[in-house]
């Protein structure tokens, strides 16, 4: 079985796209509508994880961390997840929800 978009997580990926947060929607608009020269995928499965945004060409993962990521258990899972992704050769960039909203003016 491949590493990307495992079939067993298809419905979860679809649910995450349907129920995306406002900050994810705003960032997706910027990534998807801008002429950045790179294609990004939303709610991309990598191994047993689903990342918010992924650019295969750059091997770049972008995560938007909401308030739930302030919890110590969630932070620990984020560390494990990030190590896994980096071990595969991906670069992981994290933004908080507040950073996305704050930077929207600069990106627009």
Q: What would you say this structure looks like, in words?
A:
The protein has helices at residues 10-18, 22-33, 72-87, 97-107; strands at residues 41-46, 49-55, 60-65, 91-96. The longest helix has 16 residues, at 72-87. The termini are far apart. The protein is globular, with a radius of gyration of 14 Å. It is α+β, with helices and mostly antiparallel strands. Strands 1-2-3-4 form a four-stranded mixed beta sheet, sandwiched between helices. Helix 2 (22-33) runs parallel beside helix 4 (97-107).
Give the key terms.
4 strands, single chain, Endonuclease, Chain A, four-stranded mixed β-sheet, alpha+beta, 108 residues, 23% strand, 4 helices
Q: Total number of helical segments?
A: 4
CATH superfamily: VSR Endonuclease
Poorly predicted spans: none
Mean pLDDT: 86
Output the helix-strand order: HHEEEHEH
Number of strands: 4
Structural class of the helices, strands and pairings? Answer: alpha+beta
CATH architecture: 3-Layer(aba) Sandwich
| Separation, N- and C-terminal Cα atoms | 40 Å
Report the top-level CATH class: Alpha Beta
Strand-residue proportion: 15-25%
Large-scale geometry:
globular
> Tell me about the biggest sheet?
4 strands, mixed
